[in-house]
Prior knowledge:
The protein is of the alpha/beta class. About 40% of the residues lie in helices and about 15% in strands.
Amino acid sequence: MSGLHVVRAGSRQTSPMVLIHGSGASGATWAPVIPALAEHHDVICVDLPGMGQSEPPTSYDVPSQASRVAELIDSLDVGPVTLVGHSSGGYVATSLAEQRPELVSAIALISTGPSPAALLPQPALLRALTSPPIGRLVWALRSDKLVRKGIRVTCVRPVEIPDALVAELRGLTYKTFSSVLRHNGAYIAERSVPDRLTKIDVPMLVGFGGADPRWDPQSAHEYDVLPRGRVELLPGIGHVPMLEAPDTTSRLLLDFTATDRSRQA
């Protein structure tokens, strides 16, 4: 087995959808959209290695994380699946498609920065967290309030943050958090996400908040090179559409998968 914690919802007679969260988060990030998605899909929401309730890995590099998710899909015998990645979860989805294309029927990336050049100057709290001496101190002093603030600085709308997400973030070690960020940066520095995806022959959706404070929203158009891709900018939404606009996010994903199913029919 993969050692990954999973929350599963929806009928197992429907098409499978695997939800992959971003850096230092957990599957609880997806909680607001799971009920709507589960009306049409067998939703498999995963905690990545060492995060949420999943076992720690020997390495946090992106291909290793993707390999663990592939093992999970194999163990559940559900492939091929629609992979949905938020933020750096999109790197894991991309790497999984690179390694095991037979497991993937479609890919949706939400707020996934395409290349290092697209990264904007970060909010002050995030800058502090990514500076190891200060970051370790802030991490050691973190409270529920500070965790919620850390999430909200990436949003532009008022958000309800699931208590489970706050609890799981408080359980994350700074060593894990910084290691994940370092490996994610190395993955896109080696080769951009759009370039990696150009040879993957499945339908793709790229959803990007039009007011994302972490990544330049216009960088979403770097994905215009995808031959089977569709880019959607979400006006007035920041980096975490699932929390900021769950209804909009659910509709976007369901419209994408419905269109894909109609093409296959």
